[in-house]
Structure to design on (276 residues):
C-alpha cells in the first residue's frame, strides 16, 4: 500500500500503460483520477477499478487543450484538495515520411505528446505541488525520445521534448520538494502497438528481433516502473530518464540480434565479424 490515501492523476488512462498504472496505484491505496479524451472509455476504466475494490473516478479531458487541463485540475482539487502524483502518460503516434507531414499533423502530435505533458505538470504544480512543497511527476516518453526512428519525425521530436521537459522541471522544482522523472517504455503490448504492428508486420518483426530479452513488455511491467518512480521508495530519484525496454537501447543499433545468434560463424572468422 505505497500510495494509501494519495491522490493520483493518470492521463490517457483508459487504455494500455496508463490503464495498468491506474489499476496499480488504486490497488496500492490511491484515489485515482482516470483522465482520457474518450469519456466513455475513461468511465469504463474507472468503473473496472471500483469493481475490484479500488477508488477511481473518470476525468474526461484533452491534454492538448490548456483550458481542459485547467478544468480537470480544478475538478480534482475541488474533490480531494490536493494532487500527490501526476503521471503524464497520454500520447499518440503517427507514421509518415517527414516530407509528407502536414502542418496540422505536426501541430497535433506536438500538442498531445509535448504540450500536454507541460500543461498538466504546470497546472498541477501551481494548484497543489508548489504550495504544498510536495509531489511526484512521472512523464512517459519513449526510446524515440532518445534516438530517431524512421517515418516518425513528429513522434520523435515530441518525445525528445518530453525528456527535455522532465530535465527542466527536475532542475527547477526539486528545491520545492517535487520529484520529476521520466519513463522510456520499450515495445509494450498495448492497442497503440498492436495497431502499428498490424499495419506493418515486416517492420514489427524486425523490431521485435532487436529486443535482447526476446519479448515485448507487458503493460504491468511499465506500470511497476511508473509506480516506483512515484513512490517514497524513490525519494532520491530525480531527473531520471529510465529505459524499461528489455535491453533494447543497450544494443548498438548497427547490429542485429540475428547476427549475434550466428556467433559460431563469427568464431570461425573473427577478423571479418569483429570490426564494429
Ligand atoms: N506501447 C508502447 O510500446 C510504447 C512505447 C514507447 C512509448 N509509449 C508511450 O506510452 C504512452 C501510453 O501508450 P500506450 O501504448 O499505452 O497507448 P494507448 O493508445 O493504449 O493509450 C493511450 C491513451 O491515451 C489517450 N489519449 C490520447 N490522446 C489523448 C489526449 N489528447 N488527451 C487525453 N487522452 C489521450 C488515448 O485515448 C488512450 O486511451 C504514450 O505516451 C506512448 O507514446 C508506448
Amino acid at each position: 500500500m505505497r500510495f494509501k490515501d494519495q491522490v493520483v492523476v493518470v492521463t490517457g488512462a483508459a487504455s494500455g500503460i496508463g490503464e495498468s498504472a491506474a489499476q496499480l496505484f488504486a490497488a496500492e491505496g490511491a484515489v485515482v483520477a482516470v483522465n482520457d479524451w474518450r469519456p466513455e472509455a475513461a468511465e469504463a476504466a474507472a468503473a473496472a477499478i471500483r469493481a475490484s475494490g479500488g477508488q477511481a473516478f473518470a476525468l474526461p479531458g484533452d491534454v492538448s487543450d490548456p483550458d481542459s487541463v485547467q478544468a480537470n485540475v480544478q475538478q480534482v482539487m475541488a474533490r480531494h484538495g490536493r494532487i500527490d502524483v501526476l503521471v503524464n502518460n497520454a500520447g499518440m503516434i503517427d507514421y509518415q515520411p517527414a516530407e509528407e507531414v502536414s502542418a496540422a499533423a505536426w501541430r497535433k502530435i506536438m500538442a498531445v505528446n509535448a504540450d500536454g505533458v507541460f500543461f498538466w505538470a504546470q497546472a498541477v504544480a501551481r494548484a497543489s505541488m508548489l504550495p504544498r512543497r510536495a509531489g511526484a511527476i512521472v512523464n512517459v516518453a519513449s526510446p524515440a525520445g532518445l534516438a530517431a526512428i524512421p517515418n516518425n519525425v513528429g513522434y520523435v521530436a515530441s518525445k525528445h521534448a518530453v525528456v527535455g521537459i522532465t530535465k527542466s522541471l527536475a532542475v527547477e522544482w526539486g528545491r520545492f520538494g517535487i520529484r520529476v522523472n521520466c519513463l522510456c517504455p520499450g515495445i509494450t503490448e498495448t492497442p497503440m502497438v498492436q495497431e502499428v504492428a498490424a499495419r506493418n508486420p515486416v517492420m514489427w518483426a524486425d523490431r521485435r528481433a532487436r529486443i535482447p530479452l526476446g519479448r515485448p513488455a507487458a503493460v504491468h511491467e511499465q506500470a511497476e516502473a511508473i509506480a516506483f518512480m512515484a513512490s517514497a521508495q524513490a525519494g532520491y530519484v530525480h531527473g531520471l530518464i529510465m529505459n524499461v525496454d528489455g535491453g533494447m537501447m543497450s544494443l548498438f543499433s548497427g547490429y542485429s540480434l540475428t547476427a549475434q545468434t550466428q556467433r559460431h560463424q563469427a568464431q570461425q572468422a573473427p577478423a571479418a565479424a569483429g570490426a564494429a
Notes: Residues 11-12, 14-18, 35-38, 62-64, 89-92, 112, 116, 140, 142, 185, 187-188, 190-193 surround nicotinamide-adenine-dinucleotide (CB under 6 Å). The chain has one domain: 7-274. The CA atoms of residues 117 and 274 lie 43 Å apart. Residues 272-276 have pLDDT under 50 and may be disordered.
